[in-house]
Design brief:
279 residues; alpha+beta; OB fold (Dihydrolipoamide Acetyltransferase, E2P); five-stranded mixed beta barrel; four-stranded mixed β-sheet
Length: 279
């Protein structure tokens, strides 16, 4: 009897050892963006909220792959396209925050839902054949714009690429809020420091000029000394900048909602697609 029990125990042990291994449960890793992502941190009311249902002209797409912080691959009616986000610029591979911006983009367009909606501005594609679009994500009762969220959280900068500037004023506003919230570690330029000798300290304090103001993408509110008016013709859509002393300068008003901007130098205005007024 004892031998029989012993044999049965040995057989059970051998069966357990050679049975099919049971896979261990491995939880899917979750990503927590840095800084922690909270939609619509500023301002109030929610700026990217667009009432449902789908707006006319938007195109539904399915996200297939995240290339970086401002580029994705999607399928539309079974065909694959690359999409470049309009109005922003995220870090390239090898630059600071490339990984963080890419993961945050993935969080927006896959974690929140792989179905997205594409809004065209003026251009169809860029020089690389990528669709140029604003990317919208549907929430329970509103849409949020991925382009704007990346800027608002400091993972991308708002940069105008004329003629696609439909939402540029809003994207620039989101960059200003990112600055106010301190979410600019990915692209803020460090303030240069200088070392002065003890005997030159007083002289440096009185003779060092203040760094000139700048509006490299145009400003909604002009810094001191930035008086160039970047106007957009209501009849032709042409971008024309006016200098103090020119004929139409005083009567020209700047409406940021239309994409109009202030500039500090003529070079800035020209670089953003404006030409000088002839009078």
């Amino acid at each position: 009897m004892r031998k029989t029990l012993a044999l049965m125990c040995i057989m059970l042990l051998l069966s357990a050892c050679h049975g099919d291994p049971q896979p261990s449960a491995t939880p899917y890793p979750t990503y927590t963006p840095l800084p922690t992502y909270t939609p619509y941190i500023t301002p109030t009311p929610k700026p990217t909220a667009i009432p449902l249902p789908l707006l006319q002209g938007w195109q539904e797409a399915q996200v297939m792959r995240i290339s970086d912080g401002d580029t994705i691959e999607v399928t539309i009616n079974g065909q694959v396209y690359r999409v470049r986000y309009i109005g922003i610029d995220a870090p390239e591979e090898g630059e600071p925050c490339y990984e963080e911006a890419t993961r945050f983009n993935a969080y927006l367009v896959t974690h929140l839902g792989k179905t997205i909606y594409l809004e065209k501005d003026v251009s169809e594609t860029d020089q690389y054949g990528r669709l140029l679009r604003y990317v919208w994500i549907a929430g329970p009762d509103e849409y949020i714009m991925a382009n704007a969220e990346l800027v608002a959280m400091g993972y991308a900068r708002a940069i105008a690429y004329p003629p696609d500037v439909k939402h540029q004023a809003f994207l620039t506003q989101m960059e200003q809020h990112a600055r106010q919230a301190g979410f600019v570690a990915c692209w803020a330029t460090p303030t240069p420091t200088t070392t002065a000798t003890p005997t030159a300290t007083a002289k440096a304090a009185t003779s060092t000029p203040t760094a000139p103001a700048s509006c490299p993408q145009g400003c909604i509110t002009p810094p001191p000394g930035c008086v160039i008016k970047g106007n957009i013709s209501s009849s032709t859509g042409e971008k024309i900048y006016h200098m103090p002393g020119q004929r139409y300068y005083d009567q020209t008003t700047i409406d940021p909602e239309k994409g109009e901007r202030w500039f500090c130098t003529e070079e800035e205005a020209i670089a953003n697609g404006w030409r000088k007024s002839k009078r």
